[in-house]
Fold:
Amino acid sequence: MDDNAKSHALNQINYGMYIIGSRNGEELNGMTANWVIQVSFDPPLVAIAIENDSHTRKLIDGGRVFSVNVVEDSEVGRALIDLMVKPQKPYRNKMDKFEFVTGETGAPLFTDAVSWWECEVVNTIESGDHQLYIGKVVNAGINKADATPLSLAALGWHYGG
Ligand SMILES: Cc1cc2nc3c(=O)[nH]c(=O)nc-3n(C[C@H](O)[C@H](O)[C@H](O)COP(=O)(O)O)c2cc1C
Structure:
């Protein structure tokens, strides 16, 4: 295989930008992600791919729930991305900086998100260096009806290839 072509082509997938919220017991976390996709209308199912060695993975494995927060193309949206891309472990206070409420599942829902939904995990698939979680959407909300969601291309970063 031509590795250069593989990376080039895979980086041409269009993505949005999200904060994955997770919860296990009293512990909450948020993580920047773009590997998010709807995979069924009925029931409404969404798949997210989460790095095996991330803290988010530990929390989702324990709590079996997650939220997906759609990030706004704005200064506050970019600030959320900047903070939530840091690993939870050395920071430990990622959740002190931005307002959130907890939803039906207990996962964090960020006030600055354009919209959000929360899921119960119905299936977990080992997927190389990531875990693929299939979640059933059990609740959703809109914070900013007229805001523009941030795309990976507009952000100008890469995660893929
Ligand atoms: C643009 C971008 C997109 C990312 N998308 C994902 C993703 O879809 N899944 C994932 O597991 N990590 C993704 N990451 C990496 C995580 O945000 C990063 O590993 C984070 O530190 C994990 O946080 P945690 O340790 O608190 O779980 C992405 C990073 C960047 C820069």
Summary: The domain at 15-152 is CATH 2.30.110.10 (Pnp Oxidase; Chain A). The mean pLDDT is 97. The chain has five helices and nine strands.
